[in-house]
Amino acid sequence: ALSIGIVGLPNVGKSTLFNALTSNEALAANYPFATIEPNVGVVPVPDGRLEKLAAIDGAARIIPATVEFVDIAGLVAGASKGEGLGNQFLANIRETDAICQVVRYFSDPDVVHVDGKVNPSSDVETINTELILADLATVEKALPRLEKDAKRDKALALKLETARKLAEHLGEGHRARTLELSDEQRASIRDLHLLTMKPVLYVANVDEDQVTADLAEIDGCKPVPISAKVESDLAELDPEDAALFLEELGLEESGLARLAREAYALLGLQSYFTSGVQETRAWTIPIGAKAPQAAGVIHTDFERGFIKAETASYEDYVAYDGEAGCRAAGKLRQEGKEYVVKDGDVMHFKFNV
Ligand code: GDP
Asked: What's 343's domain CATH number?
């Protein structure tokens, strides 16, 4: 599953948001998901299309796509140097696909700010500096070994050169992501799992009346306004009351839905569906993935033995009442190996085992 590490200064609302995301009553009632470890929550990606497809096929269950949120303890200035909680807690988020940085925008005077005042851009800078320093420590730790090994193994020359470039870049206070690298160079240092190489989503934890605000860019990105407080209230409501509450706030969807959508966009992901009497299910693939690669997400055998995919768009599947109706109307396409899967495609794979 897609995984996202949550970072941010202490007291900005990370735990509140994490708990709201992972304890949502309405979602829990529909989907059998839970927190696997105290700091890891698997959250279904809300997608109204699943219910429609399941109704058409009389599916016994719905399996949504999921996002795994990984929470870390509060990151404080100096953490990368072993002060505060030390560097080891950053290990929790090393292998995530993206980072979600929660930034305090809410003004509640009862909640102490670590720096004494609410200042989003300075908070972002503090966190980013810590992540850069943590990455610099990772690269500097790897370098001596790499220099030694590269003498024996010529294949490591590229990795060594890239690591040296990175050390310089990080040392100048830049994120790894902003260093221009070739695909080969990028691949060579993948196993360092650098935090600042990951795409970042900024979540602005705003006051209740700011949830629909259009916020100024921070660090070149539009933050996603979410109220952790609203989300934690929403999490306790049944679906009808939650819908009413959202309407009152002028929102069309919960913060979780927005967050999942933004994360998909950030990472260039989309969903396709499989549907039948047993289950209706969403599968996550990169935009641009071809049919065999999409099949491979279900099972590697499906990719290896791929023959073709009977495919209907979500709109046709609904309009013609399922696969049989689409077939009768000539809306069920036979797609081959080169087919580029589209968001919402309902697919039925034929394969050799
Ligand atoms: P963390 O240290 O980043 O995990 O922060 P917490 O989630 O523990 O929140 C710190 C404090 O801020 C708690 O007392 C929360 O109740 C409060 N808090 C969190 N989010 C909000 C919010 O959106 N609005 C307000 N007013 N308080 C919040």
From this structure: 3.10.20.30
Is residue 184 in a domain?
A: no
Question: Complex ipTM above 0.90?
Answer: yes
The reply, when asked if residue 12 is annotated as ligand binding, is: yes
Q: Is residue 312 part of a domain?
A: yes
Number of domains in the chain: 1
Q: Is the CB of 16 under 6 A from ligand 1?
A: yes
Of all protein residues, the one whose alpha carbon is nearest to atom 6 of ligand 1 is 13
What is each CA distance from 304 to 87, 175, 294, 307, in whole angstroms?
Answer: 41, 38, 11, 9
313: annotated binding-site residue? no
Residue 211 in contact with ligand 1 by CB distance below 6 A: no
Question: Is residue 324 in some structural domain?
Answer: yes
The boundaries of the domain holding residue 303 are: 288-351
Structural domain contains residue 161: no
Q: State the pTM of this model.
A: 0.83
Dump pLDDT digits (tens) for 155-214: 899 999 999 999 999 999 999 999 999 999 999 999 999 999 999 999 999 998 888 888
